[in-house]
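Q: Hi! First time doing this. I have a protein sequence and I read that you can turn it into a structure. Is that right? Here it is:
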Amino acid sequence: MLYPSVTSSCSRILRSTLKTSLKSFTSQPTLSTASSTNPNFVKIVEVGPRDGLQNEPRPIPPPIKAELINKLAIAGIRNIEAGSFVSPKWVPQARTQMAGTAEVLALIDSFPKTGYSVLVPNQKGLDDLLAILSTSTSPNSHAKPPPPVTEIAIFASATDSFSRANTNVSISGSLERLAPVARRALDAGLKVRGYVSVVVTCPFSGRVDPRRVRDVSRELVQMGCYEVSLGDTTGAGTPASIRGMLEEVAKEVDVGILAGHFHDTNGTATANIMTALDFGLRTFDASVGGLGGCPYSPGATGNVATEDVVYALTGDKLFGDIGEPYTRLAEIGEWISGVLGRETTSRAGKALLARRKREEERKRKEGAKL
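A: Yes, that's right. Below is the predicted 3D structure, encoded as C-alpha cells:
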C-alpha cells in the first residue's frame, strides 16, 4: 500500500523510470546527482562492502571482500563504497573489518565506468589513502595499481550524543576536524561525499530536530561535498518523518545534492525511498542482501537491500522478471549472506530465488517423465 504522500507524483516518476529499466544501477557515476541531468534516472550507491560489513562480529578476509566488490561490479553496480580508513579506537569493528582496506583495494579488479569510494573520517585516514594512491601511481612501483578510487566519504552526526559515541567529539568538533580533510582531498583531485547520521532518531537522545540535520548538511556542502547522504541510522523513520526532515533540510540545501540512506529496522525503508523520490531525491544508498547495522545503534538492522530498491523501481512493469542483472544481484546477496552464516534479508531476492528454484524443480520433474 502506498502512502498518500507518494501515490500520485511518485507513480508518474516510476512509470518514466521504468523506460530505462536497470539503468538505475548501470550508468556511469557523475559528479552531481542524477536529478541535475535526468529527472527519471536513479543512482544507487552500493555500501554493502563497507557499511554492510563493518558491523559483522567475525573477521572477514580481504579476499572475500574483494570478491564481493568484483561480483557487484560484474553485475552492473557502478558506484561502490569499497571500505574505510577508520580508527579502531572509536569503531569497535574497524580493527577486524576495515583494517584490511588497503589489501582489499589491491585485490579488486578494475571495471570500466565503475567508481570506487572509501570512508575517510579524519586526516590520518586521508594520509593513508593518499599514500596508497601515490605509491600505486609511482613509475618505480611494481605493485598492482588499485582501482581508481576517485572519491572519499566523510561523516558527521545530527546529535552531539551520537557524535561523541562515534567520534569522541561534539558536532562542532567533528565538523571542525572534517573541514581540512575535505579541503585536502579536493586539492588532491578527489571528490568528497558527506554523510549525516541519525537524521530521524538518535539511540541516545531520541527524536532529532530536523533543523540540526539541516545545519549539519549545510556545513558539509560548504566544505565542498558534492552530495550529502541523509542517514536514518536507527531505521525508525516513516514516510511522514522523512518528508518532514527533507522539507526542513531543503530550506538551505538544494534537493539535487541530497541522497537517502535508509536502514530497514522497521520495514519502512522502501516506503521512505518512495517518499524521498517523490520529494526530488535521485540517489539512494543500498546494501546487497540487506547487509549492515550500526555498532552505536542497538537493534538497528541492515541497510535497505539493493535488490529490494531495484525491484521497487522496476518490478511493477516487468512483473518480477527483470532480467539477468537483477538475478545476479539476488545471487550475490545469497552468496555473501551464506558466507556470513545466515540467509539474505532481501525480500525481493528471496522471492526471485524461490521462483527460480520452483521452476528448476518443475523442469526436473518434467524431464524425469520423458
